[in-house]
Amino acid sequence: MKSSHSREWLVALPDHPAAAAAVAALDPITQRVNHPSGRPWLVGEWESTDLRTESAGRTSIAILGPASVTPQRLSRIAERTTDAVALDELSFAGCFHLIASVDGVVRIQGSLSGLRRVVHAEIGGVTVAATRADVLAALSNAELDRRRLVLRFLLSEIPLHTMNAPLWQDVHAVDEDSCLLLTPDGRARSRRRWQPPPDDQPLHKAAEALRTALVDSVRTRVTSGPTVTADLSGGLDSTTLCFLAARDGRPLTALTKLAADVGDDDPQWADLAAEHLPGLRRITIPFTDIPAHYSDVLEPLPPTEEPFPGVEDRPMYRAMAARLAAAGSQMHLTGDGGDETLMGGATGVFELLRRSPLAGLRYLRAYRALEHWRWRDIAMYARERREAYPEWLARRARSIIASPLDDEGASNLVQLPPWATPEAVGLARELLLEEAERTQQRGHNWTAHHTVLGVQLCASLVRAASPLYAAEGIRLNSPYLDDAVLHACMTARAHERRTPWAYKPLLVAAMRGIVPDRCLARSTKAEGSNVEHAGLRTNAEKLVALCEDSRLGRLGLIDPRVLREICSGFQMRMFTPYAISTTASTERWLRDQEQLVTTEAKP
Asked: Which of 39, 60, 218, 352 is 20 to 30 Å from 50 at the Cα level?
């Protein structure tokens, strides 16, 4: 088997004799850990400091990734654990995979955000789990799944449980809120381990929980050993992480990307934060040193697990990773996930209307002014929130279209770009209707549902960016995507967590006394659309070249002629940049996958 496993990958095997065949099929393995029975349990490649294991009798427990658990505590947990299901109650700060072997039963789980996820496939008659889908796909010689590939350039952020599924046939993802149990007979079953909490805590209570979660989360990273750096973009999320990382006089190196967009006030806020961080070492990258959007879109890179969501930003991430590596970074903290956890993917105003009509109307009027909502949009949102998610998805799937990308098309949230073929539209409709029959709403209402799925979308971006940093020897970490942080945020009343009158009030309340009030006073957020449009214009020829001998075209999923006309004609409607991004990401990924075939064909 040949595959591209960027820096870290792990395969978990059942305590079964047939699992040895999977071990034999893998590349020469850097690390291996056995079951208490002596059979292979964990195989793969990881930094020795990133995997901790403790055993007692017929129980072994492993943690892969940053976690606030000492060897002594892990040993005590192993000593008292006689049932893999009993591990549901474990709670540590950090973001990690938990793997256990308990009396022959293997339990493996990732993080609620999906940043660390679990996939599984049947190999040699037994179910094998892994932390990366491409590992299992290469191990089982799985074929690409065209239907799932189509959804990678879907213009929607709603059916994420489908969009984030592995792109190979017969390789399956475990739901983020569940764990996978591998039994001694080689079979497997998924088990729910978490549900979104009730959003009934007043702001000050939720803020206390968030403060504890974030303090513990950042402390876990800065005390874990590697040299830690952090983004200091000027945004409230990254600024908070810098103050937490620099507490008690700890040295910190922070990266600031200077203004690239008209009206971008991020650098001024970053400078203000730096004034209150004595001893801070700063790395500043001028806008002119950041490669333009899409500048490397024709450049092959090592194959990855999934398409890069936002391939236009890939040159920026690579440039930033290189600068951080030159400064000695081994672990880098980003504020990714802050928007999604702290505010959620919906306002909560429609749930508030049902509980407290007068307060709900006051919020609704404010949001209508702030977000420029039309009354017909409000009526549609209110109607949809009375509909169960499976029925909502089925109705949208039946009406899926190849969108003209204009404003009116926005009302249909499930759509494909205009270059999608009729066959692609049919494949997407077919798969989404199947998903609607077996899916469920995440959480007790639509606000919780949108929050969870928004967090998972953000995690997919961080997960895709991680190999770019790993290529420079850097572990990318996003504390806002930790389980404990997500849980704390979701306990807050939705209409207090996000309001039309204050910016991120939950974080502001949580960080009083840690982050200076002047920094907490920010109420703006930078917007970079003009930079993206400039990148599209500058690299239009490269995007046109990507249409030549299109791999998506070969698969019958797009009409390259239509895509070429839009890329070369600058027909920029509302959703055009996003549509080009998702399609170019998928096309680039397919081309990079061909490197594996070429490598395997060589003697």
From this structure: 39
The pair phi, psi for residue 292, each rounded to 5°, is: -65, 155
pTM of full prediction above 0.85: yes
Q: Which of 244-253, 266-275, 342-351 has the lowest mean pLDDT?
A: 342-351
Return the biggest CA–CA distance within the chain.
Answer: 73
- Evaluate whether residue 368 is within a structural domain: no
The token pair that represents 41 in the structure block = 């349990």
Q: What is the 3-state secondary structure (H, E, C) of 494-534?
A: HHHHCCCCCCCHHHHHHHECCECHHHHCCCCCCCCHHHHHH
Q: For the chain, how many structural domains are there in total? A: 3
The CATH number of residue 75's host domain is 3.60.20.10
Residue that is last in its domain, among 490, 519, 548: 519
Token pair, residue 175, equals 């739901």
Q: How many angstroms from the chain centroid is the CA of residue 85?
A: 26
Helix intervals (H) in 229-346: 236-245, 266-275, 314-326, 338-342
Tell me the C-alpha distance between 493 and 200, whole Å. Answer: 5
Cα separation of 489 and 515, whole Å?
A: 18
Question: In terms of residue numbers, what domain contains 469?
Answer: 203-342+450-519
pLDDT, one tens digit per residue, over 59-94 is 999 999 999 999 999 999 999 999 999 999 888 999
